[in-house]
Amino acid sequence: xxxxxxxxxxxxxxxxxxxxxxxxxxxxxxxxxxxxxxxxxxxxxxxxxxxxxxxxxxxxxxxxxxxxxxxxxxxxxxxxxxxxxxxxxxxxxxxxxxxxxxxxxxxxxxxxxxxxxxxxxxxxxxxxxxxxxxxxxxxxxxxxxxxxxxxxxxxxxxxxxxxxxxxxxxxxxxxxxxxxxxxxxxxxxxxxxxxxxxxxxxxxxxxxxxxxxxxxxxxxxxxxxxxxxxxxxxxxxxxxxxxxxxxxxxxxxxxxxxxxxxxxxxxxxxxxx
Length: 273
Known about the structure:
Radius of gyration: 22 Å
Shape: globular
Helix content: 10-25%
Order of helices and strands: HEEEEEEEEEEEEEEEEH
Largest sheet: 9 strands, mixed
Structural class: mainly beta
């Protein structure tokens, strides 16, 4: 009888640990836009993403600016524009327990009069051909449920800052490391963004190597199945170019049902020993 228990124990060790490795593997989205045809918009990238804008001139599209190939969300030539970049559901049918996001951000204007900014969002977002949201976030009672947003607000006449919002309410704001706007006619340097969140540690953000938020608690935010990532950018009467490049999102999904069952079996066999 003891030898049979050992045999079952060996099988249990192999099975749960294999499942653990499978479930713990991050789900990754990565896009540097280098292999995307300039002018691509809508679902043209072909990776489940969607680029939409209230401006049909192609302002929101992948572009090649003198060798700098990236996604341009707003264009300085066009005011009163809202654009979105929707990502696919990275864990269909399940929810994520943490995420790690990095991308390069370029905000550029040819003069000192510019606006308004860009936001990064995760939540119950409606992937639609009707753009919505702003530099503050994408919470909208007509299109969304729960949404966590990080916004870069750089209206030249106001307080430039980075904000965290949940469902349209400001959780935190930092003006010590405001959004950087490059003034000039040639491609400016991008600024590195690194954003992490998990339920234990909260939200942390570095921008240009500076720690903007560290372990910020967002108590009301709990990801559910179907939560997606998206960007929103906006211009008003004043305008600017906003670009994102080298986007990578790593997510850790919930443990699978099989994993939970295997771990329960492992615990049972341990008790039997």
